[in-house]
Amino acid sequence: MKIFMVWLLIIVIGNLIANESQTIDFSIMDTSINPGDNFYRYANGKWLNENSLPEGRSRFGFFDIAENRTNNELILMMQEKTEDTLQKLIAEFYTSGMDTIAIKKTGISALAPQLEMINKISDNPDLTRALAYLQLIGINPLFEIHSPKYWEMRGTHYLYLRQTVTTLENSPDTEIIQQLARAITPSSKKYNLYNLRKLQRAFPNIIWEEYFMILQIEDKKTVIAEPDYFEMISDMLAEYSIAEWKAYLEWKLLDSAESLLKASADRELFVMQTISDCLPELTGHLYTQKYFNNETRQQVHNITSNLQSAFRIRINDKDWLSSKTKKLAVQKIDNFTFKIGEPDFNGSDYAELQIDPAGFLQNVFNSRKLHTINRLQNCGSILKNEEWIVPAHSTNAWYSINRNDITLPAAYINQLFDINNDAATSYAQLATAIAHEMTHSLDDMGRRYNADGKSKKWWKKSEIKYFNILSQKLVNQYDSYILIDTLHVNGKNTLGENIADLGGLNIAYDAYKIATAAEESEILNGFSPDQRFFLAYAQKWRDILSDDLKRQYATGYYHAPPEFRTNGNVYNLDAFYDSFSIEKGKPYKKKENRINIW
Ligand SMILES: [Zn+2]
After folding, report:
1. What's the 554 CA to ligand 1 centre distance in angstroms?
2. Range list of H helices, 483-540
3. H-helix or E-strand containing 357?
4. Which of 255, 336, 386, 486 is most buried when burial is the number of CB atoms within 10 A of its CB?
5. Low-confidence ranges of the chain (pLDDT < 50)
6. So what's the pLDDT on residue 453?
7. What does CATH list as the number for 26-69+279-344+386-593?
8. pLDDT tens digits, residue range 516-526?
9. Range(s) within the chain of domains with CATH label 1.10.1380.10
């Protein structure tokens, strides 16, 4: 039986990898469609017809398949038992989470130390201490703590405190909860800076010195998003009795522990995600060690340098830019920092972490405490260039306008790149995504910042005017796309992303030509390398959307939906028309009408 299970697992995993290969899948095309009429459907038609939305999902496509693959990789990584100290920590944590029998047996008795602490509260300083302690273990009874890396006020990390939103749903009916739920979150957040004295004066019933001590924060400068709310909770701390507060904190503790104790339908996924939230840097590091190698890093590095070369040439070819502006724009491209794979990692951070293979809840609390202290340690310090805003197993890329850098986490690269893929696929799937981020540096927002990420005017008025004319053409093009019924894409809202998509495709195509200049053109499955480049691009966007989601694209999204991210771009490229010998078709554009910004 056991042997059978193991074999089954191998077969399942084997299939998973074979079926979800990232190269072009010629079998999902619908060649009855003319590529000149709807390239997205030509490349994906069969897949779109044969698949439907999984239960409860609003979308399903290439990136969902890739996301499942990443989740499975993370689960397998966490299951692996080795003698490596850090790997052992994660594996034992995972074992504790999967042992639902032990979890059920121990139940809330695992919370005894926390319940005792709440039970011993006798005055206001005790209350502050309990609040701070609960925050250390990831429970925010009254407000949340952050040390944002993305928010770059004067380039400094500040302790950032924000209201915890309280709802009456599934809450006991107490006056404290009712009053908290009545507090309205202001729509525009203001960043109000406080020092210790000002904090103590403004919100006197929290003992701030004590609070900072427990969270081990040395620099006490704090940003508060909603001062009115903090005034209210400070008043409430004096107004309600200690007994009422004890009942509230006890409920908060039990409520947040309950979700961890409950066995969820997909326990493996739940445990993996819980551990990944508790220990993001360690999870990212172990993921990178297992699934990301130097050869991949080197190849991605080659791709980024070819993209920089292609972008430089394209900038210098623009006859609407002066030589001075071209020089500064090229400087911006030269100045990019590419963060590839994973950030610096310090294994010694985990030396004191206690993980018990039979104590899931305590493991969650211990690791959250470690993570909270670590992330708050940099409060007061200047942002360092080498800092990452996401861990290595994130599946998104980022362009930072203030630092002019591009972050490409290992898992993101793995979703779009495989060392065995041909250059056409690699450049169509990964390089277009990197070039998309690069183009953000010169989109309608990015062009307002210089090579050092400083907000500065460095364009001539006439250049801005021409850029706006080109942008308006793209706005009009996307405005014309129908999402569903009479709802259209919002060309203005999606402009920055559409500029980045169009630039991304153009730059990646040119970089692909640079990379393969010395290679002989090989026909595969009847398709030339250029045709495969465009096919692989379109297949990356295959996606099924619910009608509701299509409606949401009309207002709430900065990206156009996937079909238009394909067709909206390819029909603007000469190389696309040439590669498929397209001379007519519904979306056909005459050469002079094709939009070309970067
Ligand atoms: Zn973007």
Report:
1. 17
2. 495-515, 529-540
3. none
4. 336
5. 1-21
6. 86
7. 3.40.390.10
8. 998 888 899 99
9. 84-278+354-383
Provide the terminal-to-terminal Cα distance of the chain, rounded to the nearest Å: 60
Cα distance between residue 4 and residue 26, in whole Å: 34
CA 398 to centroid of ligand 1, rounded, Å: 8
142-165 residue pLDDT tens: 999 988 766 556 678 889 999 998
Q: Cα(504) to centroid of ligand 1, in Å?
A: 10
Question: Which pTM value belongs to this model?
Answer: 0.90
Structure tokens at 285: 């590091």
The alpha carbon of 47 and the centre of ligand 1 are apart by a number of angstroms equal to: 26
What is each CA distance from 419 to 77, 214, 295, 339, 415, in whole angstroms? Answer: 20, 48, 8, 19, 12
> Which of 512, 499, 513 lies closest to 569, judged by CA?
499
Tens of pLDDT, residue by residue over 357-400, are 999 999 999 999 999 999 898 888 888 888 888 999 999 999 98
For residues 456 and 404, the answer to whether their CB atoms sit within 8 Å is: no
Q: Find all residues with CB under 8 Å of 351, minimum gap 6, and list them.
A: none
Helix ranges restricted to H, 292-336: 294-316, 323-334
Residue type, 265: A
Distance CA 176, CA 157 (A): 32
CATH 1.10.1380.10 fits 84-278+354-383, yes or no: yes
DSSP for 538-554, written as a single string: HHHT-EEE-HHHHHHTT
